Amino acid sequence: MMKLLFALALIAYIASVWGTYTNMRSIQEHGEMKIEQRIDEAVAPLREKIRDLEQSFSQKYPPVKFLSEKDRKRILITGGAGFVGSHLTDKLMMDGHEVTVVDNFFTGRKRNVEHWIGHENFELINHDVVEPLYIEAFSPPLVTSQYGFCGGSQLLANRWTRSITWRLPPLLPNYMYNPIKTLKTNTIGTLNMLGLAKRVGARLLLASTSEVYGGEGVEVRVARIFNTFGSRMHMNDGRVVSNFILQALQGEPLTVYGSGSQTRAFQYVSDLVNGLVLLMNSNISSPVNLGNPEEHTILEFARLIKSLVSKASDRSKYMSLSRSQIQFLPEAQDDPQRRRPDIRKANMMLGWEPVVPLEEGLNKTIQYFSRELEHQANNQYIPKPKAARMKKGRPRHN
Ligand SMILES: NC(=O)c1ccc[n+]([C@@H]2O[C@H](COP(=O)([O-])OP(=O)(O)OC[C@H]3O[C@@H](n4cnc5c(N)ncnc54)[C@H](O)[C@@H]3O)[C@@H](O)[C@H]2O)c1
Asked: Class of the 229-266+293-337+356-398 domain?
């Protein structure tokens, strides 16, 4: 009996020890699970960040061609963060060249070229061309081509070629805002760039109307650029296309001065960029017109833009066209009746002509403006389109 009692006590003791042991194990396991869970919770956001970083490193850049050392050019684009300059940057980068953009962001924006930042073929320099640029000192092999797009070079050209009678060409309000700075950019800036081109033996293309830069031992190409439109254009540039698009997108009346029978011609920016590259690679040292000779009346522009925005309006809450009407305002006496570039030279000597249909270009531009309005709406700021440009107190279409 005693033995049985002893055996039972022993079994009970072993069972309790085992119970305590398994209990402790489960507490320990539970504790371990909790710790693991907490570690997991802490690490999860880090894992996500790493994934994001990996993604951002792996793609990002638009595809670029590979060019052999022999064919790859080092290209400098002053004003390359502006409207035209940034599209040229895109084209030359995608063609496989090395592009250095020099810009002081006076009217341009980093956002226009941010998709290239960090790419091995791309460099962005925040620099004012009014100051000399000794890029060759730290960046051999030397620049082989330079494109100059630091706004308003027409101003200089008009001043020099027609001496005293210069007036502001249809330039952006930004340039008018600081005409002295613009003049300095055009004179000192251009001389600085000519100096650089001469030092490094580069060919220079100027967005200008002037012939005065040749004969200094520098190979110069001169593009006379006519009205251009497309993404990244300035929203408030006061030209008829941007005005109408902004008005239509914001459901405001499209303001037409006079009957609307006066004509304008606009080229899409990709056409211009193709022309610029062809000109740069040509041996034409005299100015070449680059523009679209296809004329449309102001009223046609208004109607077309109104209907294109209307078609696109379903896709965005920022596109509310239904309220937009065409509003006729008194005629401006000095509004040019026709504006049409003569591109025969570019056509004959470069085989160039604009190919992007107006509607296609307008649709792309409408999409761009609508996205911009969305960004701005998020900050509670929506720009009003600029009124037609005032000249001698009278409005006119640009
Ligand atoms: N866009 C058009 O329809 C049009 C028509 C005719 C002529 N052009 C000419 O083409 C050129 C480019 O026009 P855009 O529409 O691209 O203008 P833009 O204002 O978008 O580009 C000019 C660029 O030059 C930069 N810049 C200005 N001053 C500078 C300085 N001192 N140093 C460094 N950078 C400077 C600006 O920040 C900007 O990025 C201009 O010379 C303009 O006169 C344009």
From this structure: alpha beta
